[in-house]
Design goal:
The complex is a heterodimer of chains A (317) and B (530). Chain A is mainly alpha-helical. Helices cover 77% and strands 0% of the residues of chain A. Chain A is globular. The N and C termini of chain A lie close together (6 Å). In chain A, 37% of the residues are buried. The model of chain A has no long low-confidence stretch (mean pLDDT 88). Chain B is built from 17 helices and 19 strands. In chain B, helix 7 (236-245) packs parallel to helix 8 and helix 16 packs antiparallel against helix 17 (472-489). Chain B starts with a helix and ends with a strand. The model of chain B is unreliable at 1-9 and 11-26 (pLDDT under 50). Classes of the chains: A mainly alpha (317), B alpha+beta (530). The interface between A and B is large, with 51 and 53 residues.
Amino acid sequence: MFAYTIRRILLMIPTLLGVAILVFLMLRLMPGDIVETMLREGGGNVPAHVIEQERARLGLDQPIHIQFISWFGGILQGDFGASMWTGKPVLYEIGTRLELSLQIAIMATILAILIALPLGTLAAIFQNTIVDHVIRVISIAGLAIPSFWLGMVIILLLLTFYGWIPPLTFTSFFKDPWQNLSQLIWPAMAVGYRYSAVATRMARSSILEVMQEDYIRTARAKGVYEHLVVARHGMRNALLPVITVIGLEFAFLIGGLVVTEQVFNLNGIGRLFVQATTRGDYTMIQGLVLLVAVTFIMVNFLIDMLYAALDPRIRYK
Amino acid sequence: MIRSSFAVAMGVVGAALLTTALAAPAKAEEPRRGGILNFAVGAEPPNYDCHANTSFAFTHPVRPHYNTLLRFVPDNYPQVEGDLAESWEVSDDGLTYTFHLRQGVQFHDGSPFTSEDVRATYDRLRNPPDGVVSIRQASYADIESIETPDDHTVIFKLSAPNAAMLSNFASPWDCIYSAEKLAEDPNFPRQNILGTGPFVFEEHAAGSHWIGKRNENYWDPERPYLDGYRAVFISGAPMVNALSAGEVLAEFRGHSPADADRIMQQLGDKGVRQESPWTCLLSVALNVQKPPFDDIRVRQALSLAIDRWGGAEALSRIALVRHVGGILRPGYEYAATDEELEALPGFGRDVEANRAEARRLLEEAGYPDLSFTFTNHNVPMPYTPVGVFLIDQWRQIGVTVEHEQLETRLYTDKLLGNELEAGLDFACDFMDEPSIQLIKYISADKSAINYTGSIDETLDRLYEEQSRELDPAKRRELIREFEKHLLTQAYQFPTIWWHRIIVHHDKLKNWHITPSHYLNVDLADVWLAE
């Protein structure tokens, strides 16, 4: 297991290197220039030599391979460079937004689990009854309704009926929990609903499959109470695919909630991604892509570890 | 008898009092000290340097920390008054500007403000050191020397008369910096805020908000009235919702007519709506280096096809454009009157005659079925509606146009590159001053924002002459001549001038709209009602 863990960690390196090269090259293939955008956006009559001076300051006049070596060399030393737009460290810009994105991801995941597991189980147990049909309607609606649209409806309802909208700026949970939750519960609900729909469907089909197994029939034959059959024998085996779905969705939530963040005016990673892309802020985009790549790799790794914990048949060598 | 006489007397006194009360003018609201102003800003400044920025995203949160030498009078644009300058004189030949500075002014770190700070600031503006960006360097090219005979006098000597100079000294971008800090690091203002303004910098939460608090040592002891302000970075529908809910009291750039109506509807009698013509314009830029736009007949035809008068009326209902004008904002002292405009190519009222002429020109030029790609910015307001309007107008003369809407970086790249055929260009400067507004139209080798590639010595000459002409009547004639020549050549021609609408909560008092969204944003004079 230890050897497996080390191997997985070492495998991250070529994966991240590949991601870094790919994103670096793709960005430089795109037309547009951050310096022109920054200095000419407001229509300023900026002389050409000023543009060239700024390009040189940002290292954009260097050959591509020099730019890559300079940047990647910094990465290896933990220096992700500075944003080409603001001049502030990339890690600082990401760090100020990461807490919010992480919190929404966690809250949405908790909501999703709290909704999906009970509903998925009930739908499986009461298969093809009115309970099952109602739960399936709820989950299909969750799949069909875009979370950003749901967010817009939530905001409009709050505004229309209460003349109130959630706080506009982020307050850390550790500073003021009430202010924090009054802002983030709404996007967490909008995102969590869709998230739970996916997990509910997966939980239902997974439990249905497991409940057909021989060991379930044996447990029933032994006279085990039905709720214990489901909870002790069924759920544990049915959870594996559900964990995969929840894990991958969680990874997506870090940086993937672009439109939802716009709707709720959340200063998160998703919005930073869009801003950086619009501006052509190469260092920022590169840093964000690496962050997302690391997140996905780590989440996948943790899911695999959880698999091993839940299913003793799974042992990594 | 006595009782009835007393009653009559009391009645007379009472009537007199009542009459007086009814006839007396309503007492003006007294400014109230205190409160934090929350307002929205649609974008965030990339850095903190006034001299290196061009966007409202900078001026709205950052300007309250600074003063300039002069400023535009908040409720009497374009009149100018002293900011850090208490008074000034201009020599008769227009070559010497002497400013007498306020005394007892301090920077926010307690260091005293002197004439040396003005000199250092303007040296930085006109001759930026290596690594420093000064976007408006060309505006100060005529400054030959800056003298500081004492701590509170600064004398600018020009190499030639400059009709725009006084306006330039009132530019909201000319924040006065500390000479001491600039000597330590010429790029100090890029990441640091140290001004003399009514508000001290407190916090910038990246992507979230900006906070300023009252400068308790401000040189005007009556100001500012606010305890502080919080600028929240928010745009689009969330901003409209925030205004409607009163979470922010204002947004100082401008709203579309639909958003303004919606906010007013939500706020009801708590909403205040202010409107003004805007110093912003979208114009059609034709790449004269690329056929068929190297042919003057094609260019003229495209301008003649546009029904500006009808379009202004229709578009004003859905977009923030409204005013028909030439190269200067209609209503400005040097702008063409409606009668003068109607005599210019493309501005006549007889649309059918104009379009018949346009078709004839295209036929003569050999392009009866002209088609091209029109590059636009993918910003809904007002670029998209104006772009769609133009394409419709050209369709009336048989021209087929593909509407290419690009996001900011690609749009800027296309305007600057050789691939451009025709595009919707924009101009939005801090005031109407012709030397600022007309620079877009001079030769491409002299103007970095002329995207047509045109070289025209007549325009260059007329631009130079009007910039030196201190007699208003003569200057006006030169500008009219410039305008007529430009619109005849039609390298670039105006569409419809913008119209600024601001809706704010009535708790915000004493804020006055100006034709530029870069002005009147230092918040020194505004206050909050209970």
